[in-house]
Amino acid sequence: ADGGGGLALAAAPGRAQVFTTVVDTFLEKLVAAGSYQRFVNCYRCFYKLQPQLTRSIYDQFISQLQASIKEEIQEVKNEGNLEGLFSSLDKIVEEAKDREEPAWRPSGIPEQDIRSTMVPYFLKHCSHLRRVLREKEEENRKVAESVLMGRDRIAELQQLIQARQQAWQ
Amino acid sequence: MSVDPMVYETQFFGFTPQTCMLRIYIAFQDYLFEMMLVVEGVMLKKLDGIPGCKVSPSQIRKCTEKFLVFMKEHFDKLFAKMEEVLLQLVLNIPKNVLLPEDRVQEQYPYSEEEFQALQDELQQLQQQCRAEAATEQALRAELEEQKVVKAELEKILQCFDGLESICREHGAGNFKESFALLTQNSKKLQDVLKDVEEKSKKMKQHDQLM
């Protein structure tokens, strides 16, 4: 659909973007839940003794947690080549956007599914053999002609020899 | 409630989406617990250094447990939401989408019968090719034989022609005719000889009788 007026429609975020956003949101909400207030509430006895240290411990806890979580996500992305896969999938989905019917899915029966993958090879093989057969038939036709001519020639020679023999009687 | 095995997604990503989420869940949870232990450890160490401290380690432990229970509850809720979104929007393949590697499935939807017919056609073509190859062999074999026979016959013809040219060279006239005449004459001679033999035999008999 075309964007009307002066408003430009932002492209739908790709999977990579959604992934990052969703993880960031998770972290945000987690940190919000584990607020400093909540932390102090739980560690009241310690807070009373060491208020400043409590703050510093909390800050470190939160920043370490965030760093570890982000690092883990990055590792998962790298290991699975997720960025690449996400952008490929986005492209594939975009190309199918006009299509409404459900697409083919593996039937779970390998013998059945493999049929279609083999058809193009068989078709190619058939057309190759048809070509080879045509060429061979044509070649053989020519050779057969030579054979017939050869037979005629031999008959001719035999007649000539017979004629000579008779002349010498 | 049945769990969607997400087979097609697994084919694309190389891993099961649910397994991926589980791995992330366990990792995140581990970090959370680890950090809490570190917090507890720092606090305990600090308290250790304070002489006459009124706060016991078990009190700190109780604090940690309280905080942990709270964090775990929120962590699980938030993670469940995140997982739902990821499985629905990111780690999924919409129903109308066909992966490029499966294009042949929609290009060549051959039924079992159609597939069998294709294989039969292939087999037939292979047989025909073999037959043509055999025909070629037979034809070429005859061609070779003909070559040999032709050579022999031509040699014989050459001999005859050679004889004629010799006769002509040596001016024996028509050698053929002379040869034929010779054959006839020798036959006549043989007849005359036989006649003479018989007559002389008769004469001897006659003499004996006289």
Automatic annotation (TrEMBL), chain A:
It is found in: Chromosome, Centromere, Kinetochore; Nucleus. It comes from the Eukaryota. InterPro entries: PMF1/Nnf1. One of its GO terms (cellular component) is MIS12/MIND type complex. Keywords: Cell cycle, Cell division, Centromere, Chromosome, Kinetochore, Mitosis, Nucleus. Pfam families: Nnf1. GO terms for biological process: cell division; chromosome segregation. This is PMF1 factor. It comes from Erythrocercus mccallii. The gene is Pmf1.
From TrEMBL, chain B:
One of its GO terms (biological process) is cell division. It comes from the Eukaryota. One of its GO terms (cellular component) is nucleus. InterPro entries: Centromere_Mis12. It is found in: Chromosome, Centromere, Kinetochore. Keywords: Cell cycle, Cell division, Centromere, Chromosome, Coiled coil, Kinetochore, Mitosis. Residues 108-206 form a coiled coil. Belongs to the mis12 family. PANTHER family: PROTEIN MIS12 HOMOLOG. This is Protein MIS12 homolog. It comes from Erythrocercus mccallii. The gene is Mis12.
